[in-house]
Amino acid sequence: MSFSKHLYAVFLLSSLSIVELPAQDSISLLVDSAYRAQNPNESLRILRKINSTEDMVDTVLNRYYLSMGVAFGQLGKSDSSILFLSKCIDNARAVNDDYNLMRAYNSKGVLLRIQGQHDSSLEAFQNAEKITEKHGENERYGRHKSDVLGNIGGIFYQLKDYSSANRYSNRALEIAKHYNDTSELAYGYLRLAIVAQAQDSLDQSLDHNKQASMFLNTLGDNNTLAFVENNLGNIYKDKMDYEKALIHHKKSNEYAVMLGEEAIKAHTLLSIGESYYQLRNLTKSYENAMRGLRIAERGNFPIHTKNAHDLLYKIALAQRDFEKALEERNAYIIVNDSLYTAEAQERLAEVETKYETEKKEAEITRLSLQNDLQRANLTSSRNANIATGVGGGLTIVLLVVFFTLRHKKQQVEKEAQDLQIEALKKRFMEIHSSPSELAVSLDFEELNGKLNTKLTEREFEALKLSLEGKKNVEIADQLFISVSTVKFHLRNTYSKMGVDNRKEAFRAILETA
Description:
Helix content is about 80%, strand content about 0%. It has 24 helices and no strands. The longest helix is centred in the last third of the chain and has 48 residues, at about 340-390.
């Protein structure tokens, strides 16, 4: 799940009837309903009912631009989103519409953060903050200030400046408390929980997660509650308090059942089974592992299928049922091998082709060097004989020195070519032994050092799993996000890398490795 809360409004107004030339009040109502629409396509559908913006009141025009920018941002159309948000900013600034100016800056900051443009994102958020400061205790601005400060905290979190992230998140929480804003309180505590976890302050993270859970229950945000409960279970697991881990993983499973999320159901059942295994209740551990396995197989969730067989293997070992343990280990290996998809094999073929080509080029160069060495030696002998024949002692010395140096230089070049071939062989063997080795060894900072626009941590995680051959649904399941969010992250990643797809991304990384 993303560090900060969803940017956009979550209330969907009832559809309005289509009108050919709406009056100003109707236009304002359309714009407001578009801004609040949960589905960006629905938002754009509403806005397209408006035939012209020429006679719009400035504040309504600004909300129109803002709504267009937000909708396009949700759809991942960054250029269009930036265009409309910039229009809103320019026009709002010109007519002193601070309220829509603040909201546009905040929305632009979120979009830039998604693109990994942290400096520009921070600048946009700080511009929004200045407007809230300008209006002091005005409640209309004050309620937004909590969100703006929380977003600034999110930037510092992504920059791994946890001290600043904690400071801004705390300021956001204090404002939420002042206005008793349940939504901002929920996400404010969740921000602090994530920051505390990053700082290895597990007890503090537990406390903040519990506070977030309380307010999320009030909001009825079951999706986020599933995440929080799973997170609480993992924290207790890290603390080796498996009784409490079990309680929270069970709650997360209840939300998954309520939401009808099969992948989350499988995941939480296996987490429950793991806790029972650690508590040495092997019967219940087996029951939950089998339930998780059935759901994983039925839903075609290979990651969970693999993890289920791994848990069943450990249970069989604990029961000293070695025949069953061998069966589960073989099942685990079969599923694990199946994760190396045809695309992964295609990537391996590309590496093999690259290796063979470079090996041939290196060998041709080496043969050429050997021919040069042979010619140099023959020329050296012939010239030495000529020099001797004419009695040129000094000439002999000069010729010997010249060809000796040339000979040494060519020997060094030959040795370099030999080393290159050996390096190619080693690289080939490493990748051939594990098609996902390149992705596994990717380093976040190293990769970002080669890009003009840096990847976010979540974009990097999605890329890494993608290069390991995982499908989008598997990545979504592992990162606890939606498939559409995975696609959004990968689309941004490819854009920043200057490639169009996973194959080209793999090739680009291989060439710069």
